[in-house]
Amino acid sequence: VQLQASGGGLVQAGGSLRLSCAASDRTFSNYVVGWFRQAPGKEREFVAVIRRSGHTYYADSEKGRFTISRDKAKNTVYLQMNSLKPEDTAVYYCAADQSIILSSVTSAQYYAYWGQGTQVTVSS
User: Fold this and answer.
1) Rounded to whole angstroms, how far apart are CA atoms 24 and 54?
2) Residue 47: which H helix or E strand, with range?
3) Residues of the chain whose pLDDT is less than 50?
């Protein structure tokens, strides 16, 4: 599957952005889809994931601010980001996998497919 991430941009602290991850596979709803981010000089870190069942998980720092969702008809997963902070500045990547197990969904190394990344910059 090919993934296309979009929706990044420059926003002031406290603002919102919605990222999109569009897939080429019509069976995208069968994939576990995660969002990760990587800031300069830092390792890629988990942000949020949505399972095939629709269950979602978030990194502790994103709980209550970010919402991951899926539109099956559009083969797209979204990441709604509210109350953005300067420390949210990073390149955001979506990733997908069909066979990843629950205990591995927060680990980037277990995802087979990756989008190209979209830059999010939050100014103070």
Assistant:
1) 20
2) strand 45-50
3) none
- The pLDDT score that the predictor gives to residue 61 is 87
Count CA atoms closer than 13 A to 27's CA, side-chain side.
Answer: 5
Residue 83: half-sphere exposure toward Cβ, Cα within 13 Å? 7
pLDDT of residue 52: 93
- Cα 51 from Cα 79, distance rounded (Å): 14
- Locate 10 and state its tokens: 């420059």
Tell how strand 3-6 and strand 9-12 pair up: unpaired
Task: Judge contact between 35 and 92, C-beta under 8 A.
Answer: yes
- C-alpha distances in Å from residue 17, one per residue of 63, 102, 122: 16, 28, 10
Task: Give the pLDDT confidence score for residue 74 in this predicted structure.
Answer: 96
Contact indicator for 118, 5 with CB cutoff of 8 Å: yes
- The sheet with strand 76-81 has its strands ordered as 3-6, 17-23, 76-81, 66-71
